[in-house]
Amino acid sequence: MSTTTASRERYFLSYSGIKLPLQLLEELPADALRNRNTWFRACYDEAGRMISCEKLVYGEVEMRHDYRWSAAGTLLEARIQGPDEDEDAQIIQFGESST
Question: What is the pLDDT of residues 28-77, one digit of tens each?
């Protein structure tokens, strides 16, 4: 799953809950990142749906979520990758794709 040129990047301090997609909290301006050790970077599609989310710690990606949505806005799939790139990603299916 990759981001598109229409995606919009935003930054956050934390998240809440355990449901997917992650619910990110406390949006940060880009210039505030130089003063932080840990933050979340999220990309959104033109419909405002989160398509990827990364947790960065000291500038390194510690975890990454990629989300795939139906045309109707239903979450179809989440792909979760931890810090070890050699480790297989966990893929969670939520429904059948009609596209």
Answer: 999 999 889 999 999 999 999 999 999 999 989 999 999 999 999 999 99
Cβ-defined contacts of 7-12 (< 8 Å, 24+)? 7/43, 7/44, 7/45, 7/51, 7/52, 8/43, 8/44, 9/41, 9/42, 9/43, 10/41, 10/42, 10/43, 10/44, 11/39, 11/40, 11/41, 11/42, 12/39, 12/40, 12/42
* Paired tokens of 28: 């940060």
Closest by CA to 92, choosing from 72, 74, 68, 71, is 68
C-alpha Rg value of the chain to the nearest Å:
14
State residue 93 phi and psi, 5-degree precision. Answer: -95, 135
**What does the pLDDT read at residue 87?**
80
Q: What is the CATH number of domain 8-93?
A: 2.40.128
- The neighbour count for residue 31, using CB atoms within 10 Å, is 8
